[in-house]
Specification:
The structure holds two protein chains of two kinds. By secondary structure, chain A is an alpha/beta fold. Chain A has one domain. Chain A is 20% helix and 46% strand. Chain A has a six-stranded parallel sheet, with helices on one face. The longest helix of chain A is centred in the C-terminal third of the chain and has 17 residues, at 205-221. The mean pLDDT of chain A is 94. Chain B is globular, with a radius of gyration of 18 Å. Helices cover 34% and strands 29% of the residues of chain B. Chain B is of the alpha/beta class. Chain B contains seven helices and twelve strands. In chain B, helix 6 links the parallel strand 9 (166-170) and strand 10. The model of chain B has no long low-confidence stretch (mean pLDDT 92). In chain B, helix 5 packs parallel to helix 6 (178-192). The chains are: A alpha/beta, B alpha/beta.
């Protein structure tokens, strides 16, 4: 049986481009990745269009680092990650979304802390120009008994125009007692005082902006495989969008 | 070098500078003193081209060029340096990267060859040593976590690296302890006290002028210069305050 196309009433699809989604419906099953005990997995996802779905299961002491660059010419890109952590597993997400015009970019994560003492770190940075929409929906579910869980989410968006939109929705479901769950989100604009400071030293306005945006997204790519390549792609995307 | 003629400026439609006239020649050091709210910092920002500081009248010529027609980065390439009273913190951007890009942008604008990474680091190391700032600090994000004194010394290091023709230093002495004041003063002399350069010091106090001897001292009040004199005018103001001059 095929699931019906979601509507805006479904929380996970509230900000989605449903017209674009309809063209891909029904969605293919998520790619499943099982990381065995003590092993490590890394993946860079370069998303430019479509819905990318990944389901990762981390056995005890396993590690995964996923870095996402969602940018390019596509109208709509959505990346869904479903991650299950067993005891002492470690998950890192670094995501960058860049959009301009009427582009829509989404990252949707569901992090299930099933075992004790697992760590998850999510850092998402969005740079949005024109009428672009960038959303991050991040659910963290800590199961009963998953004591010692340490989960953190840091979500920031930079709006380069007054018509761009950023959505950030953290959602914590905690059924254990001894848990650290930190989340922070901020939406802002490039700091005019900093831009003037950089320009007063000789950088033209475009170079000053580029330097500040590069600094803004760099945090999300920290520790990624082939970090320089991701950053170059992101900088090229910023040139187009901003 | 700098001819300010009947300059008027407003911030958020509020007039701050009012027919200000001042000429600075190469080889001269000028100090502008004055009470709070006189327009001292506004003068610095207007000359630097900060958005929001609107020129409502008058003209400024810098080495024969119309300064007010230039964008901030073009003013820098033309040889103007603005030392900030409150240097801005910029997380994620390293001083070294920012200054090398800035210097090379200026050099390109002047038709000069960009400096290589090695040559730039050598220059940065020399200037940091002059201001006794640990070179490691220049590898950190711009001004982040710097103390007030370190920020001001870092401003002077930037001035040394960029090697401007005219430096406008807005309260470089504020927030400095006695040692840092002396180090900054000596730095200003070493970098800027040259026949083809000039300095405009904006300050509240005489104390910086003990280290950087001004050739001229001006009193700014109500948006215009109401009195000018030699170095002894600063001593007189220190003793009697601004009130007798107003």
């Amino acid at each position: 049986m095929t699931l019906p196309l979601p509507t805006r009433k479904a929380e996970d699809w509230r900000y989605a481009d449903l017209t674009a989604t309809a063209k891909q419906w029904p969605l293919p099953a998520a790619e499943r990745i099982a990381v065995p005990a003590g092993e490590a997995f890394t993946r860079n996802i370069i998303a430019d269009g479509g819905i990318t779905r990944l389901s990762v299961e981390l056995a005890p002491d396993a590690k995964a680092a996923i870095h996402i660059l969602s940018a390019g010419t596509a109208e709509y890109s959505r990346v869904e990650l479903d991650v299950t952590l067993h005891a002492s597993a470690n998950f890192t997400l670094g995501g960058v979304q860049i959009g301009g015009d009427a582009q829509n970019r989404e990252i949707v994560t569901r992090i299930h802390h099933e075992g004790t003492g697992a760590i998850s770190r999510q850092t998402v940075r969005s740079v949005l120009a024109g009428h672009a929409i960038g959303s991050f929906l991040g659910q963290i579910a800590v199961a009963r008994g998953a004591n010692g869980t340490d989960a953190a989410q840091s979500v920031r968006a930079m709006l380069l125009s007054p018509t761009a939109t950023a959505n950030a929705r953290p959602e914590l479901e905690i059924f254990a007692d001894d848990v650290k769950c930190a989340h922070g989100c901020a939406v802002g604009q490039l700091d005019a005082a900093a831009l003037f400071y950089l320009q007063s030293r000789g950088l033209d306005p475009a170079a000053a902006r580029r330097l500040m945006l590069q600094a803004f997204i760099a945090e999300a790519f920290a520790g990624a495989d082939d970090q320089a390549h991701l950053m170059n792609l992101a900088l090229a995307a910023l040139e187009r969008a901003a | 070098m700098l001819q300010i003629h009947n300059l008027s400026a407003a911030v958020a439609d509020k007039p701050i500078l009012n027919d200000l006239t001042l000429t600075i020649n190469a080889g001269e050091i000028h100090a502008i003193m004055g009470p709070n709210g006189a327009g001292k910092s506004t003068l610095g920002y207007v000359l630097g081209g900060r958005p929001g500081y609107e020129v409502t009248g008058g003209s400024v010529a810098f080495n024969g060029q119309d300064l007010l027609a230039l964008a901030p980065h073009e003013r820098a390439a033309a040889g103007l340096f603005l030392g900030f009273q409150y240097p801005v913190e910029i997380p994620g951007v390293s001083f070294v990267q920012f200054l090398r890009e800035s210097l090379n942008a200026q050099r390109r604008a002047r038709g000069e060859e960009p400096l290589s990474g090695g040559a730039f680091l050598k220059l940065a190391r020399e200037q940091a040593a002059l201001l006794r700032l640990d070179m490691e600090m220049l590898k950190r994000p711009v001004n982040v976590g710097f103390s007030g004194g370190e920020k001001k010394r870092a401003e002077m290091v930037q001035m040394g690296i960029l090697d401007p023709r005219l430096a406008i230093l807005d309260e470089t002495d504020s927030g400095l302890d006695i040692d840092a004041l002396r180090i900054c003063g000596e730095g200003i002399n070493a970098i800027m006290r040259k026949p083809d350069k000039a300095v405009l010091l904006i300050t509240h106090y005489q104390r910086l002028l003990d280290y950087v001897k001004p050739d001229f001292v001006h009193v700014l009040a109500g948006g215009k210069i109401i009195r000018s004199g030699g170095a002894d005018l600063a001593l007189e103001l220190e003793e009697h305050g601004y009130e007798p001059a107003l």
